[in-house]
Structures are given as C-alpha cells and as structure tokens.
Amino acid sequence: DSEFNGSVGQSAIALLTTQIKWR
After folding, report:
1. How far is Cα of residue 7 from the mean position of the Cα atoms in its chain?
2. Residue 3 and residue 15: Cα distance in Å, rounded?
3. Residue 13: CB partners within 8 Å, gap ≥ 6?
4. Angle, alpha carbons 17-18-19 (nearest 5°)
5. Dist CA 18 CA 10 (whole Å)
6. pLDDT of 6-22, one tens digit each?
7. Tell me, what's the pLDDT at 9?
8. What are the DSSP calls for 1-23, one per residue?
C-alpha cells in the first residue's frame, strides 16, 4: 500500500507542477 500511495502522490505532484509551469 505504501508503494502504491507513493506512486499516486508522485503522479499528483507531477501533474500539479506541470499545470503550474504551463500556467
């Protein structure tokens, strides 16, 4: 579970940072 949650967290952070960069 910890690994899965970590992957989701990294993905969410990546999406957020991408949106901020493209904003």
Report:
1. 8
2. 18
3. none
4. 90
5. 12
6. 788 889 999 999 998 87
7. 82
8. -HHHHHHHHHHHHHHHHHHHHH-
